[in-house]
Amino acid sequence: MNDVAAALGRLGELAIEVPSWAYGNSGTRFRVFGTPGTPRTVQEKLADAAKVHELTGLAPTVALHIPWDKVDDYAALKDYAVGLGVGLGTINSNTFQDDEYKFGSLTSSNEAVRRRAIDHHLECIRIMDATGSKDLKIWLADGTNYPGQDDMRGRQDRLAESLQEIYAALGAEQRLVLEYKFFEPAFYHTDVPDWGTSYAQTLALGEKAFVCLDTGHHAPGTNIEFIVMQLLRLGKLGSFDFNSRFYADDDLIVGAADPFQLFRIMHEVIRGGGFGKDSGVALMLDQCHNLEEKIPGQIRSVLNVQEMTARALLIDTAVLDEAQRAGDVLAANGIFNDAFYTDVRPALAGWRESRGLPADPIAAYKASGYQKQINEDRAGGQQAGWGA
């Protein structure tokens, strides 16, 4: 096994984007709970995200959601973020909340509805121009609840036509990433339910279109690392949304359900050339739920990604390759297990301290007084939350 210090040497390449909506109120499908200190504006969301980066050194950019994060002056918002020590990242569209989208957005058979959804994405691209954002991420709630409700093939054709118009508006350095989810909110069929559908649609668009893989958007038992490998092999993995799930819902703290799965995913990311600032693969959290405190939850998630990345970097790939070629099943599996079960936490604490970061970011947050301060400063006003 490689030396731990050598593995940690590559961790400086790790950057994880955090989502603005993670700092607002969130909930189950039944209720959204309010909490003290919740941001009321996008600027306050950025301040919370900047605190995560300050304590971890892992979260240099923040993804925005439109219309939840709409402002009059996006160039000024970009400058504000830079002043806090973070940048603005992915722009996420939203065509899943307005009444007009009840039967679909980019796939709708209603031309006026489809036009509205396309125009929303064109607006998002203009926002990207102002913020310097690289990626437009699209997740669609489009689908049907009953057999015969709509023409599934026709919906795919309309999706392709809609995406083509959006894609054509991208700048030279901008990308479109298409997310998938196997169900929810549609119960019979979802228009982008799996990586194959997203791959087929983005392949038809061109070299600036990629697949976004949300780790919580798969059926139980799915071999997610196989999908990661395949998309890297095909050159179509554009970004991750990291979170965990147990049953149907997702967005839990990263690695909470299956740390070994996260480790295996990061091994394929590293092996397939998806790790590092020049890899073209953006790592982002999509983690925000109703029980945990928001800022510590984001800190815990980015630290979990860091820890499993460090463990994955410990895999001795030369010895593993030799065992695989020899057909030594137990030796090959043992190499994986040895890396996964290595406790890298003390080494990571030292790594952070060597870079002027707190050894224990969560303890440092609790001791900082930041939560007490925002609880006092943010009393009153309309709290931000999922859907607002």
Which overall shape is indicated by the principal axes computed on the Cα atoms?
A: globular
Radius of gyration: 21 Å
Roughly how much helix do the residues carry, as a percent range?
40-55%
Structural class: alpha/beta
Instruction: Describe the strand arrangement of the main beta sheet, using strand numbers.
Output: 1-2-3-4-6-8-9-10
Walk me through the structure.
This protein has helices at about 5-10, 40-55, 75-85, 110-130, 150-170, 195-205, 225-235, 260-270, 295-315, 315-325, 330-340, 345-355, 360-370, 370-375, and strands at about 20, 60-65, 85-90, 135-140, 145, 175-180, 190, 210-215, 235-240, 280-285. The protein has an eight-stranded parallel β-sheet. The model has no long low-confidence stretch (mean pLDDT about 95). With about 400 residues, it is an alpha/beta fold. The chain is globular, with a radius of gyration of 21 Å. Helix 2 packs parallel to helix 9.
Question: Short description, anyone?
Answer:
This protein is an alpha/beta fold and 388 residues long. The protein has helices at residues 4-8, 42-56, 74-84, 111-131, 152-168, 195-205, 224-234, 259-271, 294-313, 317-325, 329-340, 345-354, 361-368, 370-377, and strands at residues 18-19, 61-65, 87-92, 135-138, 143-144, 175-179, 189-190, 209-214, 237-242, 282-285. An eight-stranded parallel sheet has the order 1-2-3-4-6-8-9-10.
